[in-house]
Design a protein that fits this description.
Blueprint lengths: L2 H26 L8 H24 L5 H9 L8 H23 L20 H22 L9 H20 L5 H11 L1 H5 L3 H21 L3
Helix pairs in contact: 1-2, 1-4, 2-6, 3-4, 3-5, 3-9, 4-7, 5-6, 5-9, 7-9
């Protein structure tokens, strides 16, 4: 399939991830008495990936995340020449989703952006935030690489990956509001501006580092003894 069609699928998939995941945090998490809370938001993010993995996995591979694209490339699972188109599509999908959310809510002041320090949901500092994002992204990529390995049980990868992202959110929403995805962080931050945009660098650097570490680890697993 052409790169343009695969990139379009990545745009749609990342749009759905940000719209569904961040949308659940904006509209449903804090509703009195019936709010879904951290658990519901975690499930929402996991379900966006699970549904898109079945919907577009056969088209683009369903990366939805520049860190995933980088990790798969370093692991030898993705062509480096296709990386720019995928990453651009992912970031654009996230930005458009953030615009839609801001239109619905009537404001761009609070779009479930990621952060540390005073912008962390529970006030966690930059250091713990970096460690959290590196480790969570590393584990996410290990899950992806393992679940999509040709030796793994066929057909179950979307379930493992979706549940993995749910678990990651359950752990780390209080710390950084959970990124593990530079595109997911970029869309809301660009519209919110201020501290969200000032801290965006971390949500590119840490997930990308975690993805590369995971790729190196998994390639070591694949080496013949």
């Amino acid at each position: 399939m052409s790169l343009s069609k695969r990139s379009a699928a990545e745009f749609i998939g990342t749009f759905w991830l940000v719209l569904g995941g961040c949308g659940s945090a904006i509209f449903a998490a804090g509703v009195p008495e019936v709010g879904i809370g951290y658990v519901g938001v975690s499930l929402a993010f996991g379900l966006t990936v699970l549904t898109m993995a079945f919907a577009i996995g056969h088209i683009s591979g369903c990366h939805l995340n520049p860190a995933v694209t980088l990790g798969l490339t370093v692991a030898g699972r993705f062509k480096s020449s296709d990386v720019p188109a995928y990453m651009i599509a992912q970031v654009l999908g996230a930005i458009v989703a953030a615009f839609v959310l801001s239109y619905i809510i009537g404001s761009a002041d609070s779009l479930a952006s990621n952060g540390f320090g005073e912008h962390s949901p529970q006030g966690f500092a930059m250091g713990p935030g970096i460690v959290t994002e590196v480790i969570m992204t590393m584990m996410f990529l290990i899950i992806i690489l393992g679940a999509t390995d040709k030796r793994a049980p066929a057909g179950f990868a979307p379930i493992a990956i979706g549940l993995g992202l749910t678990l990651i959110h359950l752990i780390s929403i209080p710390i950084t509001n959970t990124s593990v995805n530079p595109a997911r962080s970029t869309g809301p931050a660009l519209l919110e501006g201020g501290i969200a945009l000032q801290q965006l660098w971390m949500f590119w650097l840490a997930p990308m580092a975690g993805a590369v570490i995971a790729a190196v680890i998994y390639k070591w697993f694949e080496k013949e003894e």
